[in-house]
Structure to design on (343 residues):
């Protein structure tokens, strides 16, 4: 159940006083200035119903090699501030503007400090407290989501398995999830590398099977931030899926809705191209299980059109590099629901 004290602050820890099962994880995507190194660092906590299941963790993904590591810590090693995003897992510390990583274990080494500047979070208002919109107030959602920064600057250095990596001049992205478990099936993609002619442009998009009372629906949330303007397409905003197709090499997803300035009608066309990745752990109701294949080397083609009087005008068109991409579970069920046959 969402805590009314934290509901308008998606970044902070939401797990105080909750019943098992519960998880919460923060996702830091890191790309260095030369775009040679791409990493995801994911700290979090899992509260399980069985003895010994509860624990904290920091998992890492090398987006170039696909190598992953899951560093498990005792539950007692997890500490979180009451009213700010400031968590500690053993010697590691994570905040919105800085992370301090101190992992030197047989399964891998990641040591260093990174600083973040110019964060661009998803706007929070009373009626729409973040990316979830009014769904953030629903007390029975399986999973909640937050975008803490679409795009920001990185400075600092990490030592990874003995190699010093300078992230100065790099770009980052931060999001998080919390709740009981991840959905049965979902597609997620993200990029904030659209070239020198589109600085600050970032897209995050997800569609999933969302349990709702005694049924389920294909819920989706998409945000395209371009030239300081956020174009949002979501189930709660009345947007609708026009096309969702999955091929061996790519995903095609078209949607339409009222987005951007004055909530004018827009169409957003996405094509996410698959690439090699690594297996990450994700929360089930019993434990954190390794089942999510994530790539940080996918390509994301984006086309945003303004629609007026049956005429279309291109607002933005570009290809996102170093895109994150996850395609998990029976996607055909999402497709069937999107066509109106699965409710």
């Amino acid at each position: 159940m969402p805590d009314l004290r934290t509901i308008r602050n998606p970044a902070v820890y939401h797990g105080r006083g909750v019943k098992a099962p519960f998880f919460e994880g923060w996702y830091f995507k890191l790309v260095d200035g030369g775009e040679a190194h791409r990493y995801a660092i994911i700290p979090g906590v899992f509260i399980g119903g069985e003895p010994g299941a509860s624990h904290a963790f920091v998992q890492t993904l090398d987006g170039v090699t696909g190598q992953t590591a899951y560093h498990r810590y005792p539950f007692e090693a997890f500490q979180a501030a009451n009213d700010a995003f400031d968590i500690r897992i053993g010697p590691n510390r994570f905040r919105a503007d800085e992370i301090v990583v101190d992992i030197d274990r047989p399964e891998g080494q990641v040591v260093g400090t990174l600083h973040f500047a110019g964060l661009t979070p998803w706007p929070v208002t009373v009626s729409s407290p973040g990316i979830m919109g009014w769904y953030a107030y629903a007390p029975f959602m399986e999973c909640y989501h937050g975008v803490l920064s679409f795009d920001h600057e990185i400075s600092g250095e990490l030592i990874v398995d003995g190699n010093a990596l300078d992230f100065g001049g790099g770009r980052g992205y931060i999001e998080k999830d919390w709740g009981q478990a991840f959905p049965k099936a979902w597609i997620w993609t993200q990029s904030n590398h659209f070239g020198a002619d589109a600085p600050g442009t970032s897209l995050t998009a997800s569609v999933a099977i969302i349990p709702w009372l005694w049924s389920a629906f294909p819920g989706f949330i998409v945000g395209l931030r371009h030239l300081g303007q956020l174009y949002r397409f979501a189930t709660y905003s009345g947007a609708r899926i026009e096309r969702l197709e999955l091929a061996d090499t790519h995903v095609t997803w078209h949607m339409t809705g009222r987005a951007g300035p004055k909530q004018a009608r827009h169409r957003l066309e996405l094509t996410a191209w698959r690439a090699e990745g690594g297996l990450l752990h994700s929360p089930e109701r019993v434990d954190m299980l390794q089942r999510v294949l994530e790539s940080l080397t996918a390509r994301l083609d984006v086309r945003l059109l303004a629609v007026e009087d049956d005429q279309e005008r291109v607002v933005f068109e570009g290809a996102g590099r170093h895109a994150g991409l996850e395609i998990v579970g029976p996607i055909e069920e999402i497709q069937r629901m999107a066509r109106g046959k699965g409710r």
